[in-house]
Amino acid sequence: METVNLLRNHKRSLLTTQDISRLTGIEVKRTLENNIRRLIEKNILISLEKGKYMVAESDVSDFEIANFLYSPSYISFETALNYHGILSQFPFEITSATSKKSKKKEILGKTYRYIKINKRLYMGYYKSGNCLIAYPEKALFDYLYMVALKKKSEEYLNEMDFSNIKKRGVEEYLSLVSSKSKKEIKLLISKYL
User: Fold this and answer.
1) Which of 3, 39, 87, 97 would bridge with 45, disulfide CB 3.0–4.6 Å?
2) What does pTM read for this prediction?
3) CA 46 to CA 53: how far, in whole Å?
4) What HEC string does the chain produce?
Protein backbone atom coordinates (compact mmCIF):
# COMPACT_ATOMS: atom_id res chain seq x y z
CA MET A 1 0.00 0.00 0.00
CA GLU A 2 2.86 2.33 0.82
CA THR A 3 4.34 1.75 -2.67
CA VAL A 4 0.97 2.56 -4.26
CA ASN A 5 0.77 5.88 -2.39
CA LEU A 6 4.37 6.71 -3.30
CA LEU A 7 3.63 6.14 -7.00
CA ARG A 8 0.35 8.03 -7.03
CA ASN A 9 1.79 11.02 -5.13
CA HIS A 10 4.99 11.13 -7.16
CA LYS A 11 5.23 14.11 -9.52
CA ARG A 12 6.17 11.99 -12.55
CA SER A 13 3.78 9.58 -14.24
CA LEU A 14 6.37 7.94 -16.49
CA LEU A 15 8.96 5.88 -14.66
CA THR A 16 11.85 3.56 -15.41
CA THR A 17 12.71 0.52 -13.31
CA GLN A 18 15.52 2.59 -11.75
CA ASP A 19 13.05 5.38 -10.85
CA ILE A 20 10.81 2.86 -9.08
CA SER A 21 13.81 1.39 -7.25
CA ARG A 22 14.87 4.86 -5.99
CA LEU A 23 11.30 5.76 -5.07
CA THR A 24 10.57 2.57 -3.14
CA GLY A 25 14.06 1.98 -1.78
CA ILE A 26 13.99 -1.60 -3.14
CA GLU A 27 17.44 -2.46 -4.45
CA VAL A 28 17.22 -6.26 -4.77
CA LYS A 29 16.47 -6.90 -8.45
CA ARG A 30 14.19 -9.93 -7.95
CA THR A 31 12.17 -8.18 -5.19
CA LEU A 32 11.84 -5.06 -7.34
CA GLU A 33 10.68 -7.09 -10.38
CA ASN A 34 8.11 -8.96 -8.27
CA ASN A 35 6.86 -5.68 -6.79
CA ILE A 36 6.52 -4.12 -10.27
CA ARG A 37 4.71 -7.24 -11.58
CA ARG A 38 2.19 -7.03 -8.69
CA LEU A 39 1.64 -3.30 -9.38
CA ILE A 40 0.91 -4.12 -13.04
CA GLU A 41 -1.48 -6.93 -12.05
CA LYS A 42 -3.33 -4.52 -9.72
CA ASN A 43 -3.58 -1.93 -12.55
CA ILE A 44 -1.49 0.59 -10.63
CA LEU A 45 1.28 0.57 -13.24
CA ILE A 46 1.06 0.03 -16.99
CA SER A 47 4.04 -1.53 -18.72
CA LEU A 48 4.95 0.44 -21.83
CA GLU A 49 7.96 -1.69 -22.68
CA LYS A 50 10.71 -3.47 -20.79
CA GLY A 51 11.88 -1.19 -17.97
CA LYS A 52 9.45 1.67 -18.75
CA TYR A 53 6.12 2.20 -17.01
CA MET A 54 3.25 4.63 -16.69
CA VAL A 55 1.26 5.21 -13.52
CA ALA A 56 -2.31 4.08 -14.34
CA GLU A 57 -5.02 6.74 -14.47
CA SER A 58 -2.43 9.47 -14.96
CA ASP A 59 -2.91 12.22 -17.49
CA VAL A 60 -0.01 11.63 -19.88
CA SER A 61 0.01 12.82 -23.49
CA ASP A 62 1.16 10.77 -26.46
CA PHE A 63 3.92 13.38 -26.95
CA GLU A 64 5.24 12.79 -23.41
CA ILE A 65 5.20 9.05 -23.98
CA ALA A 66 7.04 9.52 -27.30
CA ASN A 67 9.84 11.52 -25.61
CA PHE A 68 10.03 9.03 -22.73
CA LEU A 69 10.23 5.89 -24.88
CA TYR A 70 13.25 6.96 -26.93
CA SER A 71 15.70 9.63 -25.94
CA PRO A 72 17.00 11.97 -27.16
CA SER A 73 14.02 12.82 -29.32
CA TYR A 74 11.60 15.66 -30.01
CA ILE A 75 8.20 15.70 -31.72
CA SER A 76 8.65 16.77 -35.34
CA PHE A 77 7.68 16.05 -38.96
CA GLU A 78 3.95 15.42 -39.63
CA THR A 79 3.02 15.29 -35.94
CA ALA A 80 4.51 18.70 -35.08
CA LEU A 81 3.22 20.17 -38.35
CA ASN A 82 -0.29 19.01 -37.42
CA TYR A 83 0.14 20.29 -33.84
CA HIS A 84 1.09 23.75 -35.15
CA GLY A 85 -1.87 23.83 -37.58
CA ILE A 86 0.23 23.60 -40.76
CA LEU A 87 -0.94 20.12 -41.73
CA SER A 88 -4.67 19.60 -41.25
CA GLN A 89 -4.55 15.81 -41.62
CA PHE A 90 -3.88 14.05 -38.35
CA PRO A 91 -0.99 11.62 -38.91
CA PHE A 92 -1.43 7.92 -38.10
CA GLU A 93 1.90 7.84 -36.28
CA ILE A 94 3.50 10.05 -33.66
CA THR A 95 6.70 11.12 -35.41
CA SER A 96 9.84 12.32 -33.68
CA ALA A 97 13.34 13.34 -34.69
CA THR A 98 16.26 11.63 -32.97
CA SER A 99 20.04 11.75 -33.23
CA LYS A 100 20.12 7.98 -32.59
CA LYS A 101 19.15 5.25 -35.05
CA SER A 102 15.64 5.24 -36.52
CA LYS A 103 13.09 3.11 -34.68
CA LYS A 104 9.41 2.24 -34.72
CA LYS A 105 7.53 1.23 -31.56
CA GLU A 106 3.99 -0.06 -31.15
CA ILE A 107 2.82 0.86 -27.64
CA LEU A 108 -0.74 0.79 -26.25
CA GLY A 109 -2.22 0.60 -29.74
CA LYS A 110 -0.26 3.60 -31.07
CA THR A 111 2.70 3.80 -33.40
CA TYR A 112 5.69 5.90 -32.40
CA ARG A 113 8.22 6.48 -35.17
CA TYR A 114 11.67 7.96 -34.54
CA ILE A 115 13.56 9.23 -37.56
CA LYS A 116 17.29 9.76 -37.40
CA ILE A 117 18.51 13.20 -38.39
CA ASN A 118 22.06 14.47 -38.55
CA LYS A 119 23.34 15.47 -35.08
CA ARG A 120 23.97 19.00 -36.36
CA LEU A 121 20.22 19.28 -37.01
CA TYR A 122 19.22 18.19 -33.50
CA MET A 123 17.96 21.64 -32.47
CA GLY A 124 15.04 23.97 -33.07
CA TYR A 125 12.65 22.60 -30.46
CA TYR A 126 11.12 23.85 -27.21
CA LYS A 127 9.74 22.33 -24.05
CA SER A 128 5.96 22.30 -23.73
CA GLY A 129 4.81 20.76 -20.46
CA ASN A 130 6.80 17.53 -20.20
CA CYS A 131 7.72 17.09 -23.83
CA LEU A 132 9.94 18.56 -26.53
CA ILE A 133 8.33 19.81 -29.76
CA ALA A 134 9.92 21.28 -32.89
CA TYR A 135 9.15 24.91 -33.69
CA PRO A 136 6.93 25.11 -36.81
CA GLU A 137 9.78 26.16 -39.10
CA LYS A 138 12.06 23.40 -37.78
CA ALA A 139 9.35 20.72 -38.13
CA LEU A 140 8.93 21.84 -41.74
CA PHE A 141 12.68 21.87 -42.32
CA ASP A 142 12.98 18.36 -40.84
CA TYR A 143 10.23 17.23 -43.21
CA LEU A 144 11.83 18.92 -46.24
CA TYR A 145 15.18 17.37 -45.32
CA MET A 146 13.63 13.89 -45.36
CA VAL A 147 11.94 14.63 -48.71
CA ALA A 148 15.34 15.74 -50.08
CA LEU A 149 16.85 12.46 -48.85
CA LYS A 150 13.93 10.56 -50.52
CA LYS A 151 12.83 9.18 -47.14
CA LYS A 152 9.50 11.02 -47.17
CA SER A 153 7.04 11.86 -49.91
CA GLU A 154 6.30 15.34 -51.24
CA GLU A 155 2.59 14.42 -51.08
CA TYR A 156 1.81 16.12 -47.73
CA LEU A 157 3.41 19.40 -48.86
CA ASN A 158 0.45 20.07 -51.18
CA GLU A 159 -1.90 19.88 -48.19
CA MET A 160 -0.02 22.23 -45.87
CA ASP A 161 -0.98 25.77 -44.94
CA PHE A 162 2.26 27.79 -44.94
CA SER A 163 0.62 31.14 -44.09
CA ASN A 164 2.12 31.24 -40.58
CA ILE A 165 5.54 29.89 -41.58
CA LYS A 166 8.46 32.30 -41.68
CA LYS A 167 10.45 31.39 -44.78
CA ARG A 168 13.61 32.86 -43.26
CA GLY A 169 13.11 30.63 -40.20
CA VAL A 170 13.14 27.55 -42.41
CA GLU A 171 16.15 28.74 -44.42
CA GLU A 172 18.29 29.35 -41.33
CA TYR A 173 18.89 25.58 -41.05
CA LEU A 174 20.21 25.24 -44.62
CA SER A 175 23.83 25.85 -43.57
CA LEU A 176 23.69 22.64 -41.48
CA VAL A 177 23.14 20.23 -44.38
CA SER A 178 25.26 18.99 -47.29
CA SER A 179 25.30 21.00 -50.51
CA LYS A 180 23.28 18.33 -52.36
CA SER A 181 20.55 18.34 -49.67
CA LYS A 182 20.72 22.15 -49.49
CA LYS A 183 20.03 22.39 -53.25
CA GLU A 184 17.05 19.99 -53.00
CA ILE A 185 15.59 21.79 -49.98
CA LYS A 186 15.98 25.22 -51.65
CA LEU A 187 14.02 23.89 -54.65
CA LEU A 188 11.26 22.64 -52.33
CA ILE A 189 11.17 25.96 -50.45
CA SER A 190 10.85 27.94 -53.68
CA LYS A 191 8.13 25.57 -54.93
CA TYR A 192 5.98 25.60 -51.77
CA LEU A 193 6.74 28.71 -49.70
Assistant:
1) 39
2) 0.92
3) 6
4) CHHHHHHHHCCCCEEEHHHHHHHHCCCCHHHHHHHHHHHHHCCCEEEEECCEEEECCCCCCHHHHHHHHCCCEEECHHHHHHHCCCECCCCCEEEEEECCCCEEEEECCEEEEEEECCHHHCCCEEEECCEEEECHHHHHHHHHHHHHCCCCCCHHHHHECCCCCCHHHHHCCHHHCCHHHHHHHHHHHHHHC
Report the distance separating Cα 33 and Cα 164, nearest Å: 50
Show pLDDT as tens, one digit a residue, over the chain (193 residues): 566 666 666 678 899 999 999 988 889 999 999 999 999 999 989 999 999 999 988 889 999 999 999 999 999 999 999 999 999 888 889 999 999 999 999 999 999 999 999 999 999 999 998 899 999 999 999 999 999 999 998 988 998 999 999 999 999 999 999 999 999 999 999 999 9
Q: For residue 5, which amino acid is it?
A: N
